Amino acid sequence: MLNFTAKQLAAELAAKRVSSVEVAGFFLNRISTLGKDLNAFVSVDEEKTLAAARAADRLIADGKAGPLTGVPVAHKDIFCAEGWLTTCGSKMLANFRAPYDAHVIGQFNAAGAVIAGKTNMDEFAMGSSNETSFFGPVRNPWQTECVPGGSSGGSAAAVAARLTPVSTGTDTGGSIRQPAALTGICGLKPTYGVVSRYGMIAFASSLDQAGPFARTAEDVALMLNVMAGFDARDSTSLQRDAEDYARDLQKPLAGLRIGLPREFFAEGMAPDVAKAIDEAIAQYRKLGCEMVEVALPNMKLSVPVYYVLAPAEASSNLSRFDGVRYGHRAPAYSDLVDMYKKSRAQGFGAEVKRRILIGTYVLSHGYYDAYYIKAQKLRRLIAQDFSDAFKQCDVILGPTSPGTAFKLGEKSGDPVQMYLSDIYTIAVNLAGLPGMSLPCGFDRANLPVGLQLIGDYFGEAKMLNVAHQYQLATDWHQRMPQGI
Amino acid sequence: MVWEVVIGLETHAQLSTRSKIFSGSSTAFGASPNSQASAVDIALPGVLPVLNRGAVERAIRFGLAVGATISPRSIFARKNYFYPDLPKGYQISQYELPVVQGGSLTIMVGDREKTVRLTRAHLEEDAGKSLHEDFHGMSGIDLNRAGTPLLEIVTEPDLTSAEEAVAYAKALHALVQWIGICDGNMQEGSFRCDANVSVRRPGEPLGTRCEIKNLNSFNFMDKAIRYEVRRQVELIEDGGKVVQETRLYDPDKDETRSMRSKEDAMDYRYFPDPDLLPLAITPQWLDDVKATMPELPVAKQARYTGEFGLSGYDARLLTQSREWSDYFEASLAAAGIADKAGAAKAVANLMTGELAATLNRSESSIVEAPVSPVALGGLVRKCVDGTLNNKMAKEVFAAMWAGEGDADAIIDKRGLKQISDSGEIEKIVDQVLAANAKSVEEFRAGKDKAFNALVGQVMKATKGKANPAQVNDLLKKKLGG
User: So what's the ipTM on this one?
Assistant: First the structure.
């Protein structure tokens, strides 16, 4: 059971060779032991999980099984799930029990999936190492003194450590792809607007997108089929016909043009990462792909642009956490303003405060044009670079992260170093494009290396095709951390 | 010293949609606190706004009614500030690109016409209510009103007196109801005004303005502006300077007092709301809304004066609201008289005279009038065909109001029939002239009043039934020789 993919597990369940209650029991057991050591989960509710598993077994018995009926799915603690604590990794929401389901949760419930638990994350999804969580850092199952990446570190670690076959995350600047890379699994950020943001606690609304974690591209497609789709409750949700993201998995890659942005390969990549990426390129050549050099001249601006726009939106999105209606309120205060100040000072961690301050600053009178408007203009240029590149290639390839998993505490004192670990992923969010990470090797310390694929708008199925064909030819995705 | 007063008004009209501007909750007034606050309204984590199409349509209606430009693309922005009745910590409003731009409203100030230019009208959401009483050292928050759709209508600084400001506010109040976008209920806060007031000496640049809030009746608006103008003039004449600030009108003390100065003005950090796409209004949508627009008061007035020969005054009275013009047009149709001008004048006389006075006395609105337009049409028929004179028409109207039946029945029952037989009237006129030699004498000596006394005598002799026009003519003929 340990190494079943979600697809295999669903088939086993449908064939009644195993029950959903047995599956849930197996993974709950791992969550309560190994999961505790890794600190991958913020909340586990065995009763709820087993009740959902029993319901799934009844559906299977009645012949009403859907694609994920009875399969456990762990959700990043950023998604509201009715009756579940939904903390967003923050003291501010440590006591918040969601009274409604996010669209994503509703979709998984409707598909028959069983909630395995809510996973740990950087506070309000702000971080690249999962060290900003109020509930403590998550450990990387490959080397527990290392970070799993962030912000969806718990969801990534949970899949890598086989605490759940699949999980969900969100990606604002790389928060799915970077932890997927650092934990040796697959993670996909869809085109902006493909997955509804309703019920997903907002960090930076114009950049946030939810997506799946899995070990195989095939499972990613299965998950995306459940998550994607129009939702009238999100005005930025795209009204498109439903598509089967698995439809192109088996297509041969001969003749595919893969774009290699010269800016990705110029500098900054760790030698072991560069070596693994080169080997992946060689593998794709063997599969008949053609390599095309492309240019993304404005990509170097993506980190500064992102650190204007994302904090600007965040500073406003996080205003609702004021201690008035729900969440943390300071136990003692002298008046209204004092209540706001104390509640927010106590409820938010340092990184969240830093970004609220940056965001408030760039939106302030007299600075708005110089920062916010300027950044929006550059954002358009960055998107234009990708449009130009996709005239020459079908998919873009490069590293997901400049390095492999770093040690806990190694970068937490230096925000800029931390921000630069998302240098290859951020531009994709700014452009609203789909991107994914898949494992492509290991460094000398046996830490996984992630390969990033970037698709054109709505190019998810093609990206998954490119990933799946690679996984048919390699076995990086089948490697398992030791001692789990 | 001569002072010029410069006023601009900002009006918040609550749009008459059933649900809120960004959520599906009801907008009905008076529900128990927080019973109409959904997850979106209380800003739970993860919720998102979805724009109410009906609110946009109402904004378009307004733009069309004032001849404004309807922006094909407008932007919702966040206005950021902290307050307990503002659940998200920001208000969704429009800032740089509002849905309605420009336009104007022509108003009557006394009997003088004036055109007030509008700057813009934009869509936004209302905040909730903070309740500071009854909570013993705490405050209560009612979020029923949070997310109610508002249209904020802003004028250019074109108004020059409290009288003009009130005339504008009344005209706007009538218009938003006329086009069916706002119920105009001022007690419930559906129509609220803020006034920007400054004074200057003629020819000088604009003075420093103060914004006066809490003008929730026309009467308060009038008093508050008068007070504020006086305050600013006295301040300057005493060598002081007006400070730009927001002031609150206190109706109990009849004064305005400082709420916050410009120095405390917040930086709202406006930026486009990333949760909402730009609002696109297609030519097709515009046409669809246009097709549902009622005939506007100005067009009706032109028709009433042009087609029916009514006076401007009557035309304006009859178009004071949709209900009034509907009543007028229904009565006119019910009268079914070929001479439209004559019938229209008769309907107008009854409506602006007896009906208006009776409504006023009974403190009721025209839709509550027990005399239906059809019944009034029946009465008009009897006036135009000469059966009733004015005095008799009044009597019949009062009887109709009291529920004694239609005009025909009342005329029969009371034997009210005007004497229009000239032979009969002439006989009575001769008798009156013979019996009132003194009045005849006085008239011939140049006293016009004596003539009226003679008319009165004839009417008295006929118990008010004589046709007054005929009496006049006959008397003139006989006396003038």
Answer: 0.96
